[in-house]
Design goal:
It is a single chain. By secondary structure, the protein is an alpha/beta fold. 41% of the residues lie in helices and 22% in strands. It folds into two domains: 2-122, Rossmann fold (3-Layer(aba) Sandwich); 130-225, Arc Repressor Mutant, subunit A. The strands form three sheets. It has a five-stranded parallel sheet with strand order 2-1-3-4-5, with helices on both faces. Strands 6-7-8-9 form a four-stranded antiparallel sheet.
């Protein structure tokens, strides 16, 4: 598995290259935003881990240019900017996931592998899918974002993963086991009941969107348009 790490901190570069390398991830390093696209095209990585604060060209600019060129590699944003506004800008620019600094190395690895799995299972035509709508929500496969009317829905990465999974099967129950795998990929230390917390928080954010997140006892959870 090839990972392109776009990060200008030498200490972070070395730590991630050594740690992830021991876990069978081939980490290629780029420390300059101006060179990131050139290496991205040349390396053809499975996943890109992209820092927002880069010299010369900001990480968001790199991401926006890559998507404009048609580069569809899954992107995980790494940044010390932890505000909702920064997450929204990243998702709007085409990011697939978001991990604020400082982060746990096990979680970083789990998210990288989850992005690769989703990319492989989606297949090469995933970006050509039509937008999917449930109630007042719209899922855009091109950038992986979910909108309510014309506004980006403000959700956390875990809530986004849960909502995407439910929107892929509107009107059909998705088991808690499957949702747990998608929302907490590879996180063996997370309690199974944690999925209920994500459901609870997401359900509150869906109020007024014309979409209902229902609990189907013994089956899992279901998303449907509000009556």
């Amino acid at each position: 598995m090839k990972l392109l790490l776009v990060e200008d901190d030498p200490s972070m570069q070395l730590t991630l290259q050594r740690t992830l390398g021991r876990r069978h991830i081939d980490v290629r390093i780029c420390g300059d935003g101006a060179q990131a696209l050139t290496q991205w095209r040349a390396i053809e990585p499975d996943v890109v881990a992209l820092d927002l604060s880069l010299p010369n060209v900001d990480g968001l600019q790199v991401l926006a240019q890559a998507r404009a060129e048609g580069l569809r590699t899954p992107v995980l944003l790494l940044t010390a900017r932890g505000t909702v506004g920064d997450r929204i800008m990243g998702l709007n620019a085409g990011a697939d996931d978001y991990l604020p600094k400082p982060f746990d190395l096990d979680e970083l690895e789990a998210r990288i592998r989850a992005l690769r799995r989703r990319s492989q299972s989606a297949g090469p035509d995933a970006a050509a899918m039509n937008p999917m709508e449930v109630g007042g929500l719209r899922f855009e496969p091109d950038n992986g974002a979910i909108y309510h009317r014309a506004e980006l829905l403000e959700v956390t990465p875990r809530e986004l993963a849960l909502l995407k999974a439910l929107m892929m099967k509107p009107g059909h129950a998705v088991t808690k086991e499957r949702l747990f795998e998608l929302v907490f990929p590879g996180e063996a230390n997370v309690q199974y009941e944690a999925i209920e917390v994500v459901v609870y928080r997401l359900r509150k954010k869906l109020v007024g969107t014309g979409t209902v997140l229902m609990t189907m006892r013994g089956l899992g959870y279901l998303l449907r348009a509000e009556s």
